[in-house]
Amino acid sequence: MEVQQRLYDVDSFWEFVHRPENADKQLELIDGEIIEMPAPGEEHGYLAGEFYHHFRLFDPERKMGVPTVESGYYTLDDRYTVLAPDAAFRLRDRADAPLNKRWASAMPDIAVEIKSPNDSMAKMRRKAEIYLRHGAGLVWIVIPDKQAVEVCRLDENGDIQTEFIDAEGSLSGEDILPGFELKLTRLFP
Asked: Which is the most buried residue in 21, 38, 89, 91, by most CB within 10 A?
């Protein structure tokens, strides 16, 4: 007899993560499958906080949008995927008002994923593709051991384009956050 694995959707996943036995777990949902992630290390948490801090400094009144840390995002056209970027920014016109008590119902405009030691770049790029295919404009994959960031975006043909920014470079908000610039030396002093 074949055992079928249960596929979770946004609603059943919400119920699952809020069970007492899952309270301290970090979970995401990709294509209906629950993925458990180990708790991030101190450097990881510091970097996520820095991105949030710089988003807030750039837009202190949150007139342009909403920055978040470790918040869940999904899209209405894919109720089987919930991602929790380490940091994110969603433009005001795409943000829910008032903010959701549950997960945000659209992917962020900028998603920041910080590579943990056990993450492969293939895994990180797969998540970047999910964000981009579901409405994100930029994904920044932070690679702490290289003090670098891989910037991912879709080109005019819908293909994923990547750009490697080393420790001497800067991240740009491009057309999503015009004027936003973050020198990597601010992240990796």
From this structure: 89
Q: Provide the phi-psi class of 123: left if phi over 0, else alpha when psi is between -120 and 50, else beta.
A: alpha
104 vs 84: CA distance, rounded Å: 10
Q: What is the pLDDT of residue 3?
A: 45
Closest to 55 in 3D by CA, of 177, 189, 155: 177
Report the C-alpha gap between 108 and 111 in whole angstroms. 6
Q: Does domain 40-187 have CATH number 3.90.1570.10?
A: yes
Q: Where are the domains of the chain?
A: 40-187
Joined together, the tokens standing for residue 151 give 């910037």
Summarised one tens digit per residue, pLDDT across range 108-154 is 999 999 999 989 999 999 999 999 999 999 999 999 999 999 999 99
Is it the case that residue 90 has pLDDT exceeding 50?
A: yes
The total of other beta-carbon atoms located within 10 Å of residue 18's CB is 10
CA distance 2 to 32: 19
Rounded to whole angstroms, how far apart are CA atoms 167 and 188?
Answer: 7
According to DSSP, the β-strands at 78-83 and 87-91 are unpaired
* Count of residues making up the chain: 189
pLDDT in tens, 54-84: 999 999 988 999 999 999 999 999 999 999 9
